[in-house]
């Protein structure tokens, strides 16, 4: 049975997946690059100079077994990208998704076919409807839920996420978009494990308990 998975989603100690305000110059707001420094040091990110420790072992799972991705509008571009007909995402002409990629937005536009197998499709749909479309495209493979925090939260809240890999980074952001708001008691639906890395981050996995 194909799964819905989140990987490498980095949050601060106080649960923020991005700082504020988000902009073209600062996609993660006042968080800057601090949420992802652990990942930049891995071989997954930097095949030349990256290391192959605990962080890398988790990071590489981002690439395994996915047939589609769903992301929120604020991951696809800075505030106002919907007003720019030339905006094609942050990732250049060969984005790192290599599958159909569904961007949730209240202002959809025609699909964008990129190089390397990524096509961005723009959907104004409920989480359930969007997941149905993505699963159809993914076939036997899993669907990656790429973030940010608001869209992950809405899918978890709807009971649609099987596995989350969250990376707790030892910084306090105080403001931004938070993953946990409205998810009180979410731990009762998941088996939760943690692995502390020498780098200072803690890898959390939340695996949905069987619904039998
Ligand atoms: N920490 C990490 O590892 C990580 C990973 C990925 C991204 N990020 C960062 O997270 C930030 C974005 O996160 P975010 O929480 O602000 O926003 P987000 O989840 O990326 O996007 C939320 C927006 O998506 C649209 N949307 C969501 N659900 C929808 C639905 N069912 N139907 C139609 N539209 C829907 C709405 O935009 P509209 O109403 O404007 O259409 C909504 O405001 C960015 O800074 C990004 O760089 C962090």
UniProtKB/TrEMBL annotation:
GO terms for biological process: riboflavin biosynthetic process. GO terms for molecular function: 5-amino-6-(5-phosphoribosylamino)uracil reductase activity. SUPFAM superfamilies: Dihydrofolate reductase-like. Residues 8-184 form the Bacterial bifunctional deaminase-reductase C-terminal domain. Pfam families: RibD_C (PF01872). This is Dihydrofolate reductase.
